[in-house]
Write a structure and sequence with these properties.
Beta-galactosidase, Chain A, domain 5, binds alpha-D-galactopyranose, 9% helix, mainly beta, nine-stranded antiparallel β-sheet
C-alpha cells in the first residue's frame, strides 16, 4: 500500500513536471534529432518561476539556448548554437558544450603523471584541444530530470572509459544544470576516477547579449576580476609566466568595451588575434564573489559569472568566420560571440607551478559555475 501511494505521488509529480500544465517552474523533454550512428538525441526545456527558458541537450551536455529579457522585458536568445543535433554533430566551435577531460590546450598532446607519459590526439596544430576529437562535447550523456532546491534541474552523467582519448582511468562525470527563479544558470560538476588522472571541465557557451546572430560583441562592456593572465606562445600554449595586466589592454578590473582596445598592437592581442586568454582570478575559488561580467548597453542585458575555478578563458570568438549558420538561420561572423570559460589553467599538467589539475584515484573533482542574467 505504502509503495502504491509512493508510486502515485511520484507519477503525479512527474506529470506536473512534464506536462507543463502547472504554473511555475517546469521541464519538458522533446526530440532533438539523430546522430549519424542512429542514436536519438533529446532536448530539455527548463522553465523557471518567471517563465524564462533555458534549453539543454544530452548531446555533449550542451546549453542550446538561454532566453532572457532586456531592460524593457523584450526576450532574446543570448547564446550561439545550432537548430538540432545534426547541426551540432556537423558543426564546430564547441557552442554551449561541456568540455573535458581537459578544457583548453595540452602542449604537444603530452603529459607525464606518476612517471608515465600519456599521449593525446593532436587536434589543434601541434597541440591537443578540449579533450580531443571525441571529447565530452561529442558524447551522448544520460539525462535525468530532477528538482534542486525547488528549481528545475537537469542531471547529466557520462562514463568515460580508461584511456579514452589517451587519458588514464575510468572517469564518471556528472553535470547538473539548475535554472533558478532569479535567472541564474548554475552548473555543478563532479568527477571521479579509478586511477590518477587529470581533469579540467568547463562549459564553452558563447554569449551575444544583443541576441545570437545580431552582430559582434565589441560593444559589450566586460569586467574580469583578475590582476594577471597566463600569456601564450604562438600556438596558444601558456609560457608559464603569470603576467600582471595593470595598465595593459587586458586590464578589465573596470568594465570596458571589448572593442576599445582589442585592436591595439599589444603582443598578446596579436598572438591571440584578440582576446583568447586565461585570466588568473582574484576570487580565491569563492563562488560568491563576482569573477566576470558583460553588459550590453543597447539592451541592458548583463551576464555575471561566479565560479569556484582559479581561471577564466576570456575568448572573443576570433575563430568565427561566418561559415557556421546559427539556429535562427543567421551566420556567425568574426567576434559574434564571447566566452567566459571557467577552468584550471591551460596546459597545467605541464606547468607544476600552476594550480594542479590532477584528480587522484578515489578523490572527487567538484566545480560550481553560475551565469546570472539581469538587465539594467
Ligand atoms: C577556446 C580556445 C580558443 C578556441 C576555442 C574554440 O576558447 O582558447 O583558442 O580554440 O576554444 O574554437
Amino acid at each position: 500500500m505504502k509503495n502504491l501511494i509512493r508510486l502515485a505521488s511520484f507519477l503525479l509529480l512527474s506529470a506536473i513536471l512534464f506536462t507543463g500544465c502547472s504554473k511555475g517552474p517546469k521541464i519538458t523533454k522533446e526530440n532533438f534529432g539523430k546522430l549519424k550512428d542512429g542514436k536519438e538525441v533529446s532536448i530539455f526545456t527548463l522553465v523557471n518561476e518567471k517563465g524564462f527558458k533555458v534549453r539543454i541537450t544530452n548531446y555533449g551536455a550542451k546549453i542550446v539556448s538561454i532566453e532572457v529579457p532586456d531592460r524593457n522585458g523584450k526576450l532574446a536568445d543570448v547564446t550561439l548554437g545550432y537548430k538540432n543535433a545534426e547541426g551540432y554533430e556537423a558543426g564546430d566551435h564547441y557552442f554551449g558544450s561541456i568540455v573535458g577531460r581537459y578544457a583548453n590546450r595540452i602542449a604537444k598532446g603530452k603529459f607525464t603523471l606518476d612517471s608515465v607519459e600519456y599521449k593525446l590526439a593532436l587536434n589543434n596544430g601541434s597541440n591537443s584541444l578540449h579533450g580531443g576529437p571525441t571529447g565530452f562535447h561529442s558524447q551522448l550523456w544520460n539525462a535525468e530530470v530532477i528538482t534542486k532546491d525547488n528549481y528545475p534541474s537537469l542531471k547529466l552523467t557520462y562514463h568515460s572509459p580508461d584511456m579514452q582519448e589517451g587519458y588514464p582511468g575510468n572517469m564518471d562525470v556528472t553535470v547538473t544544470y539548475t535554472w533558478t527563479a532569479d535567472n541564474a544558470l548554475k552548473i555543478d560538476y563532479e568527477a571521479t576516477s579509478d586511477k590518477n588522472t587529470v581533469c579540467n571541465l568547463t562549459n564553452h557557451v558563447y554569449f551575444n547579449l544583443k541576441g545570437e546572430g545580431n552582430g559582434d560583441i565589441l560593444d559589450h562592456q566586460v569586467m574580469i576580476n583578475a590582476d594577471a593572465i597566463t600569456p601564450v606562445d604562438t600556438t596558444l600554449i601558456p609560457t608559464g609566466e603569470l603576467r600582471p595586466i595593470k595598465g595593459t589592454p587586458f586590464d578589465f578590473l573596470t568594465a570596458t568595451a571589448i572593442g576599445k582596445r582589442i585592436g591595439e598592437k599589444y603582443d598578446q592581442l596579436l598572438t591571440g588575434n584578440g582576446y583568447d586568454h586565461n585570466f588568473v582570478l582574484n576570487t580565491k575559488n569563492d563562488v560568491s564573489v563576482l569573477a566576470a561580467s558583460a553588459y550590453e548597453p543597447a539592451s541592458g542585458r548583463t551576464v555575471e559569472v561566479y565560479t569556484t575555478e582559479p581561471g577564466i578563458q576570456f575568448y572573443t570568438g576570433n575563430f568565427l568566420k561566418g561559415d557556421q549558420t546559427g539556429k535562427a538561420g543567421k551566420p556567425y561572423n568574426f567576434r559574434n560571440g564571447l566566452c567566459f570559460e571557467a577552468q584550471k589553467f591551460p596546459d597545467s599538467p605541464n606547468h607544476p607551478a600552476f594550480p594542479t589539475a590532477e584528480l587522484k584515484k578515489g578523490d572527487k573533482y567538484t566545480q560550481t559555475t553560475i551565469y546570472k542574467f539581469t538587465a539594467k
